[in-house]
Design brief:
single chain; alpha+beta; 3 domains; three-stranded mixed β-sheet; elongated
């Protein structure tokens, strides 16, 4: 085992290097220019590693996701031995950028040393032989070949997989992974087999979930957190049953209260039980992404439900307080203490209640008027009818009229209001050349919504928030 290797768990946040040469990048998909530290450190390790494979695939296809913000050269993610990430230029052929990110050796030289140099080792040959034997035992596979060229539709392009075979769902290439596979090899081969309608399957000689190189993680996370092994035991089972078997190590998301951790499982399974995702170049037994998404959605839904419940409780408690004290607040120690508790709760929401219920007239009138409009009966008034509240708002607090009338309509009390208007004075007040509706259309400033109570209106009466906000915008525009 390498002394510098650090295994990072999937749900840990990725770590950027401290002194990255490339400090800012351009995200062509989002049209943003984030710092490299923000982009790297804001992702789970599992997502970043999965993304870095896709970043190289896109860069090689001529459709890069990220550019260096200084020189506009495509960039991709690389890592230090202890799995701290930074962005590297695809090339540094000139001196147009102050950031220097490339090592003395080229990617091709590193690839040749770390990948091709091990392909003829005895362990590599042994696993290729095991794969060939396992495939030959299963009638679902045909045209099995070792180290034979796979020619692309473009005859100039080809790959030479360790083992290849025909299958009912299409051709499959098997590559043995024993040591270090450079990221460009992973991305290049995935892209090639995707174009050819084939499926690339990486086969390991062994796997230790507690000790993983980054090159292993590249293959793990890009393959839906499934790792496959063909060994002597699985080969014997394949030949005995006539069915190709593999050993699968896979991650499972596990909920821990409001967080997600992971657990590992291992199972020997028939190839037929695996899901082939040729577009995504994935072969998997357990759908980690689907399970992870379901857990995240459940946690988010519970959080949303809890937040909504807390909102409803705060809304209901203020209503109950106003139902009892809105008409006449008695300044007893108990009443003041109850109000202070409400004020503190609302303050934590960023909402301001007055020092006491009767110390801010606009808030007092707003609560009484809109609760009346919502309930269809006076609340906080000595009146007996809703139409009396309507006249009071129109005469004494016209800046609350739009909110009040919107609430009457939104809560379905228009007919009630009209039925109480036996004298016709309410209809007369609304209509006509000098009625309220006409004056509002002319942007009469007396009807401009009262700004000090808007946050409370939006929180307590969300059904009318859009209408009130539209009126606020209209009056604001009329000033210019």
């Amino acid at each position: 085992m390498g002394l510098n290797n650090v295994t990072v768990e999937g749900y840990d946040y990725a770590t950027p290097v401290e002194d990255a040469q490339i400090g800012q990048i351009i995200d062509l998909d989002l049209g943003e220019i984030p710092t490299a530290k923000t982009l790297i450190g804001g992702q789970f390790y599992q997502d970043l590693v999965d993304n870095r494979v896709q970043i190289v695939e896109r860069m090689n296809s001529g459709n890069p996701r990220y550019l260096c913000a200084e020189c506009l050269t495509p960039v991709y993610l690389v890592s230090t031995p202890d799995k701290r990430f930074f962005f590297r230029h695809r090339s540094e052929e000139d001196d147009s950028c102050s950031a220097k990110t490339r090592p003395p050796l080229t990617a091709e030289e590193i690839t040749a040393r770390k990948y091709h140099g091990l392909r003829e080792s005895q362990p590599h040959k042994h696993i290729k032989s095991l794969i060939e034997r396992s495939l030959a035992a299963d009638a679902d596979f045909s045209d099995i070949a070792v180290e034979r060229n796979w020619k692309g539709a473009d005859s100039r392009r080809y790959r030479r997989p360790d083992v290849q075979a025909g299958h009912l769902q299409g051709k499959i290439a098997f590559e043995v992974q024993l040591s270090t596979t450079f990221l460009s090899v992973v991305a290049g081969r995935r892209a090639f087999y995707r174009r050819e309608g084939g499926l690339l399957v990486w086969v390991f000689g062994s796997f230790d979930a507690g000790y993983r190189r980054l090159t292993t993680d590249d293959l793990l996370y890009s393959n839906n957190s499934n790792i496959f092994i063909v060994d002597d035991e699985t080969t014997e089972l394949s030949e005995r049953t006539g069915i190709f078997h593999l050993r699968c190590h896979y991650r499972m998301p596990v909920r821990d209260d409001a967080k997600i951790t992971d657990a590992w499982a291992e199972k020997v399974v028939p190839f037929a039980d695996l899901t082939q995702d040729r577009d995504g170049q994935r072969l998997f037994l357990f759908d980690f992404h689907a399970a992870d998404a379901a857990l995240r959605a459940a946690i988010q839904q519970e959080a949303d439900d809890a937040k909504a419940m807390a909102i409803r409780i705060d809304q209901a408690d203020l209503y109950e307080f106003w139902l009892e004290h809105g008409r006449s607040f008695r300044h007893t120690p108990e009443n003041r203490a109850s109000w202070r508790q409400l004020r503190d709760r609302y303050e934590r929401r960023g909402l301001e209640l007055p020092e006491f219920p009767d110390s801010h007239e606009a808030t007092r009138v707003m609560l009484s008027a809109l609760y009346s409009a919502r309930d269809g009966k006076p609340m906080g008034y000595k009146f007996s009818k809703l139409v009396q509240v309507a006249h009071q708002v129109a005469e004494a607090c016209p800046s609350l009229f739009i909110a009040f009338y919107s609430a009457v309509d939104a809560y379905g009390h228009n007919d009630l209001l009209n039925s109480q208007d036996g004298s016709g004075k309410w209809r007369q007040r609304l209509k006509g050349a000098d009625g309220i509706f006409s004056r509002i259309k002319r942007d009469d400033p007396v009807f401009q919504p009262e700004g000090s109570v808007l946050p409370l209106i939006y929180f307590l009466f969300p059904e009318i928030s859009d209408r009130v906000a539209a009126a606020v915008d209209r009056y604001r525009d009329s000033l210019f």
